[in-house]
């Protein structure tokens, strides 16, 4: 029965989604924004991946803050381009207009200043089939830098895997 239910639901929701809890490394001495935990669920080409995080913002951000994602192939270091808001993309944290920017900005109503506080949220990314062309074996490295007024105010990096099929 479980397999029948899973087969029926597979068109909308994964029955057994893989969850990755990568080890985080700091990539900046600045720690105005510090991410303490990340989990990645359902990282698979053609699926919707959930990126959940917890972190602390110690000072408000008001000078055109943004998140800069730099995604590379772990083996070669080749940069993965921004495709349909997934990959090496820059996201506005205030006044965002794309669906992903609005999702990122939801905890502070997408307006600046972003108040100092603890934040926990999740983002949904549809991994396009086209991404399969760029990601090689699926072993990826992601660097996430928080930038305010052109200055890095926090940065974390980690490895994760995207399933190809």
UniProtKB/TrEMBL annotation:
InterPro entries: GM2-AP (IPR028996), GM2-AP_sf (IPR036846). Residues 1-17 form the signal peptide. GO terms for biological process: ganglioside catabolic process. This is Putative immunoglobulin-binding protein. GO terms for cellular component: cytoplasmic side of plasma membrane. One of its GO terms (molecular function) is enzyme activator activity. Keywords: Signal. It comes from the Eukaryota.
